[in-house]
Each structure stands twice: as C-alpha cells, then as structure tokens.
Write a structure and sequence with these properties.
By secondary structure, this protein is mainly β. It has five domains: 53 residues, Complement Module, domain 1, CATH 2.10.70; 47 residues, Ribbon (Complement Module, domain 1); 77 residues, Immunoglobulins (Immunoglobulin-like), CATH 2.60.40; 49 residues, Complement Module, domain 1 (Ribbon); 128 residues, 3-Layer(aba) Sandwich (Glutaredoxin). 12% of the residues lie in helices and 34% in strands. The protein is built from six helices and 31 strands. The strands form eleven sheets. The chain has a six-stranded mixed beta sheet. Strand 28 and strand 29 form a beta hairpin. The chain is rod-shaped, with a radius of gyration of 63 Å. It starts with 8 loop residues before the first strand and ends in a 6-residue tail after the last helix. It is found in: Cell surface; Cytoplasm; Secreted; Synapse. Pfam families: DUF4174 (PF13778), HYR (PF02494), Sushi (PF00084). InterPro entries: DUF4174, HYR_dom, SRPX-like, Sushi/SCR/CCP_sf, Sushi_SCR_CCP_dom. Keywords: Angiogenesis, Cell adhesion, Cytoplasm, Disulfide bond, Repeat, Secreted, Signal, Sushi, Synapse.
C-alpha cells in the first residue's frame, strides 16, 4: 500500500517600515515505506565470512538464514582475528546491521639478541616457530625456540646468548738453566703465552711469578699465567723453571794454609786461592777454578816452610830470598836490655800472626861489635850481612829504631820508638798492601783471634 501526500504552504511576511515583501514556500517529498515480508528466505543476501564461520538464528527456523530479523554470530578460524561486528541482524532495508572480516593474526616482532640471531618458519604469524642460535663462543640460555600462539603472544621468554666458553692459553715448556759462571743465579727468558677466545679478541693475560729475563735463584720456580675474557671466564696454565748450580767437591786447604774463595766457594766458576800461614810459602798453583764438568782445574798446592839461608855472605844475597815474596821489618837496638826493645819485642810477639798474614818477616840487629848479633827468628846472620844491612839502610847502633821494607826491598817507613800492632798494621794496610791483598785480608780478619 502506498500513501501520497502533497501540501503547498504560502507564507506572506510584511516588514514594517521596510517596504520589503518575502515569499517562502515548503514542499514535502513523497515518502514510500517498503512492504515488510517476514517469510522471504532471501530478504538479506546470504552472509559470508572468509576464514571464519557465520552462525545464524532466524525466527522462522533453521531453514531461514537471511529472513527479516535473522541474527548471525560471527567467529574467525584459529589464527585469525575478528574485525567488525560479532553479531549482525537482517534489517527491514534488506541490509545487515553491520559488517565483519577475519584478519590473519600476528605476534609482535621479536627483538634481536646480542651475539645471536633467530629464524622463523612463517615470520611473525600464528603457529610460526622462531629458533634462536648464538655466535661462536656463546651458548643459549633459556628456551631455544618460541612459537607465535593463536592469541598473538609468544610462548616462553626471550633467551640470551652468554659467553660460557673459557679462553684458551698454552704456556711454554718447562726449562732447565745452569747458573752462570761464578754466580748462583741464571737469567731465564721465554716468550709470554698468547691466549685466544672464541668470543673476544681483547684478553687480559696475567703473570703470576717472576718476570722473564730476570735472574732466577737456584732451585725450582713455578710460573703461572691466567687469563680472563670479558665475561670473566678464566683459564690458566703453568710451567717450571729450574736453575741448577753445578758444584765441585769441597776443596780443603793443605796443611799450614787457608783458602779464600769467590762466589759460593765450590760452584761452577768459583775461584779458590791458596794462602800460606806465616813462615810458610806456597808451592804449586796460586788458585784453582771450579769447572763446568764439576772438577777443579790444576793440581793442589802445598805450603812448605820458608827456607831462609842465613849463612849467606852478603846482604844482597839475603835480601834476594825475600824479593817480591815478603816484606821486612828490621829492628835495631843497642842491646837486648834496652827498654824500648823489650817493649817492642813483647808487642811484636803478640802481632806475630798479623805480621804473617801481611807477609812481614822480622830481622833483629842487636848490640855492637864484637858482640853484635843478627837473627831471623833462631837463625843467626853473618857479621858481613849485618854490616851490609846497616850500611844499605843507614841503621845506627846507638839507639832503638825500626825500618819497614816493602816486597821490593825499598825503605818505606822508620820508627824511632816502640810501635803497637794497631798502628803498625794500619800503616802496612794503607800503604803497602794492594787492593786485592786488602780484600783477602778482610776475609781473614778473624784468623788471628
């Protein structure tokens, strides 16, 4: 049934004082209302949903899916998300009350992991699996894969790549070093080890022990190296440095002698010198050296009594026996009862050991002719020798005096009064001994105690 209505309205306005007349007319269009049909099974077009499912309920029953008033529920397949209306109804204008479609569901993009990567079977779509791998030298911590679930979230938690592999380091081989000649140490060198790591190039290698290129003492030395990578993974190695001092059998001094040895006394390169006690002279080598084959070089020396020929006829013949061997201290006094001589004799006897160490022989000239005597210890000198000594060194018979001669027979000092051992030794040590003799004397400083 159709209803039509036409209306014409004329409105006349008068505006006072203006002289203006306005005409306005209004028309209404024809209004057509469709004839509703609740029995037409195709009132609305059949609904469809790609990658989804439509479930409809009609007032007329299941056979009427698109009749007027039918309501349909929209749902998407797994992995798809519904966009639009979940429920639509067939309206009188032959249209549905809304629209909907199913969009493929995605998970958010996974973040990158340090020192690793991942690959996915279907990108970031539902049911896609992403497998994680780490760079060389790193190990996965956590689940090695994640799956994009149907609700758009990833399974599990994001794994990390951790450096769990320790670095590698190799020490040099252990080594044996023989101490240098005359020393108890040896200089040992080696190339510091290099460390490698699969994850890092910059490594901190630390030495625990003595530095290479330094002197190592006798015995075993353990040298350690340790290294840390940036993840504080640790590696270490060690080797042994052994220093050997080659030694000769202990060297014993012969009778009436003593030894002064350098270094440790019997190590390779050590030198031992023979020194005879007072009144004795050396026969044989003056020193022996410990050799690399652990034996002493040369044959042992011996100390024998000094054979002084007191029965010579001239002073030069006597002095030649001491040339470059002994120093002489000539003591002269008017007689044996002279108080200066007696005092000096007592002090000389006490200084006998010290004089022997300094290679000093005492000659006494006592009295006047015809009872004048000269002696070296118990050996008496000929009158011609006594007179020759007095003339050669201008020694008077009238008063007490002493003349000190060096090893070349030169007059080095004169004393006109008794001299104590300290003063006498001080002069000899300062002016008659060379540097080598002073060093030897220092080593034997307690010999006469």
């Amino acid at each position: 049934m159709r209803l039509s209505r036409s209306v014409a309205v004329f409105i006349l306005f008068f505006t006072a004082g203006s002289g203006t007349t306005v005409y306005e007319n209004e028309f209404t269009e024809e209004d057509t209302t469709p004839q509703l049909d609740y029995t037409n099974p195709y009132w609305c077009h059949p609904p469809g949903l790609t990658n989804g499912e439509v479930t409809c309920h009609s007032p007329r029953g299941r056979a009427y899916r698109s009749t007027l008033g039918t309501r349909c529920q929209m749902s998407c397949d797994r992995g798809y998300k519904l966009l639009g209306r979940r429920s639509i109804m067939c309206l009188a204008n032959r249209r549905w009350s809304g629209t909907a479609y199913c969009r493929k569901m995605r998970c958010h993009m996974l973040p990158l992991i340090y020192h690793g990567r991942y690959t996915c079977t279907q990108g970031f779509m539902v049911d896609s699996r992403c497998d994680f791998t780490c760079d060389t030298g790193y190990r996965i911590e956590g689940e090695p894969s994640r799956i994009c679930q149907h609700r758009g979230s990833w399974s599990g938690v994001q794994p990390v790549c951790s450096d769990t592999d320790p670095p590698k380091i190799k020490c040099p081989p252990s080594r044996l070093k023989v101490a240098e000649p005359g020393k108890l140490t040896a200089k040992v060198t080696w190339d510091p080890p290099t460390a490698t790591d699969t994850a890092h190039k910059s490594l901190d290698v630390i030495l625990v022990g003595q530095e290479p290129g330094t002197d190592f003492k006798e015995g075993l030395h353990i040298i350690r190296y340790k290294v840390f990578d940036q993840a504080r993974n640790r590696a270490a190695c060690k080797f042994i440095v052994r220093v050997e001092v080659r030694r000769c059998p202990e060297l014993f001094p012969p009778l009436h002698s003593y030894l002064s040895c350098s270094s440790d006394g019997n190590n390779y390169g050590a030198t031992c010198e023979y020194h005879c006690e007072g009144g004795y002279e050396r026969r044989g080598v003056s020193s022996r050296v410990c050799q690399f084959n652990r034996s002493w070089g040369g044959d042992p020396a011996e100390c024998v009594s000094i054979e002084i020929k007191a029965d010579v006829k001239t002073a030069p013949a006597l002095l030649d026996q001491f040339y470059e061997k002994r120093r002489l201290l000539i003591v002269s006094a008017p007689n044996m009862s002279d108080p200066d001589y007696q005092l000096q004799n007592i002090m000389t006897q006490k200084a006998d050991c010290g004089l022997a160490l300094r290679h000093v022989t005492v000659i006494e000239l006592l009295g006047s002719p015809p009872r004048e005597t000269g002696r070296i210890k118990e050996s008496l000198l000929q009158p011609q020798v006594i007179e020759g000594l007095r003339q050669a060194f201008r020694i008077s018979r009238s008063y007490f005096s002493m003349v000190l001669l060096d090893e070349l027979g030169l007059d080095r000092e004169r004393f006109i009064s008794p001299v104590g051992s300290d003063e006498l030794f001080s002069y000899i040590d300062s002016f008659l001994l060379d540097e080598e003799e002073r060093e030897k004397l220092e080593l034997r400083s307690d010999f006469c105690d």
